[in-house]
Design a protein that fits this description.
Stress/Tellurium_Resist; single chain; mainly beta; TerD domain-containing protein; 4% helix; Jelly Rolls; TerD; 444 residues
Length: 444
């Protein structure tokens, strides 16, 4: 059974999926919001089905709920489905989780970080969104102000009457949802209209789809630079074109590759292919360091650090297709010596000292996850993000350890523009993003 970490994503190869809630708390109501149309569309106990989102609440609707989704019938304008839960009282019970299911049963589950959600009265549990097809992402974003704040973050105005009705309504009895907002009988072989899909009911019998094959066993190769098309590229100075590493499979065109930043010589470099548990040599005796990752496959690329008991510790990458990023490791006093890599193609791992991070002076921009360095005084920093998923900015001391965490500057989902206080340097700034971002210091 697969367990998703917060922020982890996966490609969906099936059009018919089920999303099940099992959440404990006081006065709970389950919701699915669809984004992309002029009005925020919602499915809940007060409105158990929607043609726009092709979502049906077929059972439950409180802390226990089952949504059926036909991704092939989602309105063309809808680009994101957000699965959320609201509560009358703050806090959610231990063991609360969400399950993602397909035709062959459970694809995976996401156990909510309820230990960190004692004051929240609403949570975004997960999202299903378009990007080269449909993908699933485990979110875990909490809102102390409840559903009002959550819905405003989605770009809409809260409908208090609907929310109240959802909390007060009786749970949906299986098969009852189909009678709330009936759809026309399916027309065999007909195609959907561009702006409205009316040929399919919200929930259909799932069609089995083949699961992606797991990558082959990794074979380490001598260290060498590799040509990569990042997804998406970070804005940085172009380096001379590197020489291709020997690889029997065709790799992306090197003319399209763009490096993260001027690359210092790595302390250690590894190359391999497919799934592997990789033993690494730390580039520093103590404290944090950077791991630069490159992937040249077409399916999932997932990298975890492993602790001394070989348990997964920190998720460094979880993407699909070609990838390049820099992650901060051992910022909280751990001593990583192994990585767990899941890949279907060739990959490269480079270990770098903290000094290799791009420096923030007055302004810095990039795309996707990265770690940068600040060496100035305590000041105000302005931040922007243009993306559809998590944007988290955390700060850490360079020496690491139990007291290394300095604070979080931003923790939102989607587009963002705001300011916070950047602590006195030197420190490391870890950025988690799925789109373009900027950091700019504001002088006194």
């Amino acid at each position: 059974m697969r367990t998703f970490a917060m922020g982890e994503k996966t490609r969906l190869d099936e059009s018919a999926i089920r999303v099940e809630f099992d959440v404990s708390g006081e006065g709970l109501a389950a919701y699915c919001f669809s984004l992309g149309t002029a009005d925020l569309d919602v499915v809940c106990t007060a409105r158990p089905a929607s043609l726009t989102s092709a979502v049906a609440l077929v059972a439950g609707g409180t802390g226990i709920a089952e949504f059926h989704v036909d991704l092939s019938a989602v309105d063309d304008a809808v680009d994101r489905l957000v699965f959320a839960i609201g509560a009358r009282e703050p806090g959610f019970g231990a063991g609360s989780h969400l399950r993602l299911l397909g035709a062959d049963g459970e694809i995976g589950r996401f156990v909510l970080p309820v230990g960190e959600s004692t004051r929240e009265r609403a949570l975004i549990l997960a999202e299903v969104y378009r990007r080269d097809g449909w993908r699933f992402g485990a979110v875990g974003q909490g809102y102390e102000a409840g559903l009002d704040q959550l819905v405003r973050d989605l770009g809409a105005e809260p409908d208090q009457a609907l929310f109240t009705a959802a909390v007060m309504a009786d749970p949906v009895v299986p098969d009852a949802a189909a009678h709330v907002e009936p759809a026309p009988e399916p027309a065999g072989g007909s195609e959907a209209e561009p702006a409205r899909v009316s040929e399919a009911e919200p929930a259909v019998d799932p069609e089995p789809a083949p699961e992606p094959e797991v990558g082959s066993e990794a074979e380490p190769a001598p260290a060498a630079s590799a040509d990569v098309v990042p997804e998406p590229p970070l804005q940085a100075e172009q380096l001379p074109e590197p020489q291709a590493a020997p690889d029997p499979d065709p790799d992306p065109d090197p003319a399209d590759a763009a490096p993260l930043s001027p690359r210092p010589a790595p302390a250690v470099e590894y190359e391999g292919r497919g799934d592997r548990v990789l033993s690494i040599e730390r580039p520093v005796d103590a404290g944090p360091f950077l791991i630069e990752l490159e992937a040249r496959g077409t399916e999932n690329f997932v990298v975890w650090t492993l602790d001394a008991d070989l348990e997964t510790d920190k998720l460094l990458a979880n993407t699909i297709g070609t990838h390049r990023s820099r992650a901060l490791v051992d910022e909280r006093g751990t001593r990583t010596s192994r990585l767990k890599i899941e890949a279907d193609g060739a990959w490269t791992v480079r270990l770098l000292t903290p000094e290799a991070a791009r420096p923030l002076t007055d302004r810095l921009e990039g795309t996707g996850p990265e770690t940068v360095r600040w060496a100035g005084p305590r000041t105000v920093v302005a931040m922007t993000h243009a993306g559809g998923s998590n944007f988290i900015v955390g700060t850490f001391t360079e020496h690491g350890g139990d007291e290394a965490y300095l604070g979080t500057l931003a923790n939102v989902i989607g587009d963002y523009e705001g300011e916070s206080i950047l602590p006195k340097g030197p420190c490391l700034i870890e950025i988690e993003a799925d789109g373009a971002w900027t950091l700019a210091t504001i002088p006194d």
